[in-house]
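User: Predict the structure for this protein chain, please.
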Amino acid sequence: MLQISIVPVTEFQQNCSIVYDDQSNAAVVVDPGGEVEKIAAVVAELGVTVEAIWLTHGHLDHAGGAEAAKQQFGVEIIGSHIADKILLDNIEMAAASYGLTGMHNASPDRWLEEGDSLSIGEHKFEVLHCPGHAPGHVVFVNHANKFILMGDVLFQGSIGRTDLPGGNHQALLDSISQKIMTLDDDYQFVCGHSAPSTVGAERSTNPYLQ
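Assistant: Here is the predicted structure, written as structure tokens:
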């Protein structure tokens, strides 16, 4: 079975996800925004083996700990889309503007494109490029389990901010309508902040989508 453990990190309470296969214990860490020692402690408690770091996008609260996690686990950083390079190259500057320390610029070992495929054990994830909140934002979809790692595209009752550098409100709405709302109602998702939801619940109640 595909399992997930959510570790809220940093002052932004960003949902870092440890996603793993409970048969092989293969795992990935999705969006290690910071507090890597906290993430590593949960990894050790779960007894899983981290095989990669996946980034949904380049904002500091999602990627500020990526380089430290790369060193911690000895794995590659995968994602996001190359359109986020400017964000990943400027994490330290953005962190300084918030008065934050301990966050570092990130250099992915592999950029992702629309339609790419990633795996955790036998579980395959389709990569969807969903710009708007960030120009290079990607979403990871496991169709077999109807499960989505959403990042900051869509939330329970809300959508991602578009007032940050590289944000585009119409592009975000297009990403949601063309990539996410084409999926069945029973797809569940974990987002970058706050509680999980389903595609169906957001289709019917999210005020930004009506």
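The radius of gyration is 16 Å.
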